[in-house]
Amino acid sequence: MISLKNISKKYKNSGDEIALKNVSIDFKKGLIHGIIGISGAGKSTLIRLINTLETYDEGNLSVFEYTDLKKLNKESTRMLRKRIGMIFQTDHLLSRKTVLENVLLPISIQRKHTLEDINYAKDLLNEVGLKDYHNRYPSQLSGGQRQRVGIARALINRPELLICDEPTSALDVITTAQILTLIKTISKEHHIDVLIVTHDMLVIKEICDTVTVMQNGEIVESGILDDILFKAKHPQTQAFVREVGLDLSYIRKLYNSKDLLLLKFDESLVQENIIADMINILNIDISIIYANITPHRKGIMVIQAEDKQKEIIDFLKDKKVVIDYVV
After folding, report:
1. Over 90: is that where the pLDDT of 272 sits?
2. For the chain, which terminal residue's Cβ has fewer other Cβ atoms within 10 angstroms, N or C?
3. Any idea of the CA torsion for 12, 17, 18, 20, to the nearest 10 degrees?
4. Mean pLDDT score of the chain, rounded to an integer?
5. Strand locations in the chain, DSSP E?
6. What is the rounded CA–CA span in Å between residue 282 and residue 318?
7. pLDDT for 211
8. Residue 241: closest CA among 278, 279, 202
């Protein structure tokens, strides 16, 4: 869907500041991809290249069937942008237009909207939970409601890709969870790929299938969510993961022990009393250092049992528990 090969970008009006340096990555279809980094990491520049708001200096960037975005003419650029929906940190709603008019805005600036367009805009507002808000104005909405309008507006052209640039950074915790759930639902029901940019690992943990970590204009680590959460290698990734309490390298240092096992349970096993049965049958003592449910509904547990690893491994093999690695 999106392919970046050795992409580099400088901002010449900022003293030749290097925004991106030799970035290569592929974002595949059917997934929600997360890009995380602190301010200045290059993540916003990356998405501005993808939606053609900026151009790159070196490398090759392909989106959909467009194999080099630098070579696009004005019409091709317009057609590409129409296939990409954007959700921003701030909603950018026009205060003098109603909610319905704001949703229709991307169509209205191109042509006169039709009755079909109006009905679809209303359907989208219903879908994002604003069924009775069509004729209200942005000043009459809460921050979460305004962001929902922004989501509906991003969908009005029926995009194939939805780019979310810090979509929840201005929202409270409860509203953030609601907006992320909505984005996830929309991605599934509309068959839209999602690229979400954030500095918050909680957002990544909640919604993403794959994660790319950026620092100083470079990609320092990339992979599926569970691997990033539980096998973080780069210090920047480990720092992000530590924010949500999942840094296994930190757990190992904290307990200063090699007798720690990382266990993974399929969703079907999460409700079973496997650990309790193991303790009773093997007559052993264990300490549960950490336990959680991953975004992909797998059970994760770190246990400590000195000198009993072999017995535990043999017992759990019969229970279809994956012992991913010894921490």
Report:
1. no
2. N
3. -80
4. 88
5. 2-11, 17-27, 32-36, 58-63, 84-87, 161-165, 193-198, 210-215, 218-224, 260-265, 287-293, 299-304, 322-326
6. 14
7. 95
8. 202
Single-letter amino acid code for the residue at 122: K
User: Distance between CA atoms of 21 and 9, rounded to whole angstroms?
Assistant: 7
Closest CA to 146 of 125, 165, 115: 125
Whether residue 237 is predicted with pLDDT greater than 90 in this model: the reply is yes
The CB density around residue 111, as the number of other CB atoms within 10 Å, is 8
Q: Which residue has the tokens 């990339």?
A: 222
CA 141-47-184 angle, to 5 degrees, is: 55
State phi, psi for 22 to the nearest 5 degrees. 55, 50
Give the DSSP letter string of 126-178: HHTT-TT-TT--GGGS-HHHHHHHHHHHHHTT--SEEEEESTTTTS-HHHHHH
Residue 267 DSSP label: G
CA angle 34, 195, 128 (to 5 degrees): 110
Q: Does residue 196 register a pLDDT over 70?
A: yes
Q: What is the mean pLDDT of residues 176-189?
A: 92
State the sign of the Cα–Cα–Cα–Cα dihedral 86, 87, 90, 94.
positive
- What is the per-residue pLDDT for 325? 56
Q: How far apart are CA 5 and CA 59, in angstroms?
A: 6
Residue range 136-174, pLDDT digits in tens = 999 999 999 999 999 999 999 999 999 999 999 888 889
> What Å distances lie between residue 213 and 123, 220, 235, 273, CA to CA?
36, 6, 11, 36
Joined tokens for residue 23: 């970035």
Amino acid making up residue 75: E
CA atoms within 13 A on the CB side of 239: 11
State residue 254's pLDDT score.
74
Q: Does the pLDDT value for residue 236 go beyond 60?
A: yes
- 21 three-class SS: strand
Measured over the CA atoms of residue 157, residue 163, residue 168 and residue 174, the dihedral's sign is positive
